[in-house]
Amino acid sequence: MTGAPSAIARHRAFEEIWRSPPGWGRLAAVNHTTIGLRFILTALAFFLVGGVLAMMMRAQLTAGGSGFLDSETYNQIFTMHGTVMMFLFAIPMLEGFAIYLLPKMLGTRDLAYPRLGAFAYWCYLFGGLILLGGLAAGVAPRSGWFMYTPLSGSTYSPGINADVWLIGVTFSEISALCGGVELAASILRLRAAGMRLSRMPLFAWYMLVTSAMILVGFPPLILGSILLEVERAFGWPFFDVARGGDPLLWQHLFWMFGHPEVYIIFLPAAGLVSAMLPAFARRPVVGYPWIVASVVGMGIVSFALWGHHMSTAGISGHAAMFFSVASMLVAVPTAVQFFSWLATLYAGRPVLRLPMLYLAGFLAIFVLGGMTGVMLALLPFNWQAHDTHFVVAHLHYVLIGGMVFPLLAAAYYWMPHVSGRMPSALLGRWAFWLIFAGFNLTFLPMHLTGMLGMPRRVHAYPADSGWEWLNLASSVGGFLQAAGFGLFVLDVFLHVRTGRRSRHNPWESGGLEWAMPTPPTSYNFAAIPDLAAMPPSGAADPLWHQRDLGARLASGQGYLADPGRGQRETLAVEVRTGRPAHVVILPGSSWLPLASACALLVFFLALLFKAYAAVPLAAALSAALLACWAWRTGMRTEPLPMDAGNGLRLLPHAAARHAPGWTGTQLMLVADGALFGSLLFGYGYLWVVSPLWPPPACVTSDAPAPLSSVAALVAATASAAMARTRRALQSPKACCAWQAGAALAGLAAIWALCRIALYALPSPTSHAYAAISAAMICYVAVHAAAGVVISSHAALRCLAGYVSPARCLDVRVPAVWWAYVLGTGLLALGLLYGTAHTLA
Amino acid sequence: MAQVSYRAGLLASLPAASAGAASPFSTLDPAGPVARIIARLWWIMAGASVAITLGMIALALYCAVHPSRPAALDARKWLLGGGILFPSVVLLALLGGGAYAGWVMAARLAPPPFVVQVQARQWYWEARYPETDRPQARSVNVVHIPAAMPVEFRVSTPDVIHSFWVPRLGGKVDAVPGRINVIRLQADRPGIYRGLCAEFCGAGHAQMMLDVHAHDAARLPDVLAALPEDGAQAQPRQRSGR
User: Smallest Cβ distance to A451: which of B28, B173, B207?
Assistant: First the structure.
């Protein structure tokens, strides 16, 4: 390097490249620091809305009969309280922390898909606004936040309320899925050089497992919501008993999401605890491999528990026993984590600062919540306590104890990082005691309220029930909590102005996020750290082994320290070893995420208001914008090795086998597969469990239709695979021809599938069999349509010069996509036609 | 600090607990074998939970404020003992207790039961007595059963999901369209036992209550003889309505 720039000059050059545009341009920002803080502040606003709804509920329940709210209004309020807290506060808040913190902790400059992160934010905001809009207009959903059918079906909930829930929540779920894909890809691929997977910060492990859980756990709810919306709007009877459906199918799909959901909420918070505790114990965490094993174990086991929400609904005794035992089993990995933390404190030299107070609150409350959870897992007890205020008490102990208290601790811990100023310890302590005392006053007696027989979701109760004093205590506690949270919010907003300037790294943590100036620069690190020489025991707390790491990085000692190329660059590493693999060139600010989210908003609003003429137009617009977005990736020229610093030359990601786009495609297919799996489950479940099966009419076994569908899909897959061969890649025209062939074969497949749905199946409104069969066909057809778009896009890319043997991502994506469509098509058609004989 | 808050909370609820007998919906004032066994399980679990919670808090306080000399730590002992062995032992004991309770309940309710069909609707309960000599009789928001013998409630609904629950007698069972869910309960003595709907079912959910009247087995046929038949107008009775 000739004439190495000074640290100041380097900083200015990097800022120029990485900062978000000012003014209105901030809406186009994609930088993870900005997006993370946006998620956090928006989630805080939704938390306050949910809190106000809770206060109204507590005010109503203070005395049994004197309520100021009638039943219908109250039903909207409790439904919205649950919905807002679970979907619009808990997940987005934790996502915000992860988006903000992970690149910094991992020693990299940004997440893998900056525009996707921005898009996820806008989808979250718009979905949330749909729900709040419903509340403001008096048409909020009112069937409970888990929306059991048939109450939430069109017969018993006519009106737009339930549709507001289904559409608003689905829109927000898209956000969570995008977040899951982005975080998983970033943790796997974008880290500091030499940061082994087995030695990365624990918070990254927690978020990796959480992201995987999101990818597998959210699709069942998305499927359920789609099915329920289609039932409400078009009469396809998935959950209607009279026509072969089953209301319990909704419950299965919902809780297959719902149970992992609460662990998706708990694990990131526990990850934050693991990230903060070493600083206060002044030693690295004890039992790192034990914690990783527990977190992975919890992630897996949490998918086997969902039936414990249904033990009184009429599931088989054996199933209920299985879910009961599994629910208790999950206490073991939780206990391992707790004892790890306690061992860390014991073996360390603890120093008690304000965040520790909140962590103490977390321990006290969450342990009791875990105890009541294990109690609820025990079947006979569950039959008394289910659907009473005992469950309400339990869930608030685990959610507020297990998530809100760690979040408050994390807020106090990282506020100096975000703003460079210290919050007020006095306000923080007052807030803690008010929240802690208020929380326990509200929810500890509530266990007894439930045992005395008070059910959930009642707006009034008889004067002779004996529940009045307990409800009064709970309501008083609610006011104390509100005061405490108010003080916290005040502290957060005041400290930005009046907080005293904190010294750098006030907690003397070893985490990489402190190896930068605080408030952080827009580019995190002037040089990507090289941790290869770090001893294994120290890798999770790098700053304790190289105290001057921050200064070294600022002076350019590391990788990619030269801003001279004028583009946003970060390092991609091998998953397991952390060895530098290629350079990722990240996009700058863009309006596409906001525009795409707006197009999707139009699409969802058209569905909500049943303006079905607008739906295909909005869908086409969204697809066009997403195609524009995809067009802006890749390189038109042959990639050349770049100087990555420290004598290393690396190729850019467009030439890499494991480019971020490829990892993202694979992760997205996992989520898609979970959705398809849920659909297959739905078919099998209805067949085996639903009364009124077998259906009066099955699919007519007219051989040409399914065979031609399969033939067309095979042709598409083969064509796309041919486009991947070296010979094809060398000739853009040949490659384009293969892609066009795939697209045409795809169109033929869609035509054949439509023939099956229209002519071979009975009407989908006649029986659940026809409805779910049609849904499976639609799934394959929609994916084939997406394949047509993807292949057409790839064909154009070939002609435009984006494709060569070294730059083949544009061609690998259609190949795997068509293989996926073929696989799901074979499964769907095989199931449909294979079972037709048995059913008929 | 944390312990004070917990003790205060517990003390505050004790008067309510001792007044638990005054709540007609209390699961802690059992009137039948199912509720009694479950209540006993509850007290044991509650005591153990409080003990474990206080124990963990005490351990955490000790770890956080112990005299600061570098303490030798056998990590494996902590993690294996505390993280794996301790919860496993407790959970096994719990499962054993639950299994035993379930076995006892099944044995107590084994004799041939008196059968009641309960239909839950928005927003009232309807009971029929199919295996008596008045199978056409129906009672609304009241269920007549014999005392001191097992009763099998067969619960269903034509509309949305409800849940049939008589806390002083035992657990609840959901009324799900398309299914007949069954629960066996027993009232030890004649009397009136209050019940309610425990699954949110719409605007009238909070008012959807019922009374279970347990009679001496000898008197029951007379009671049933006085009930109206199918087709006779019977208005659903409102409980202290609001």
Answer: B28
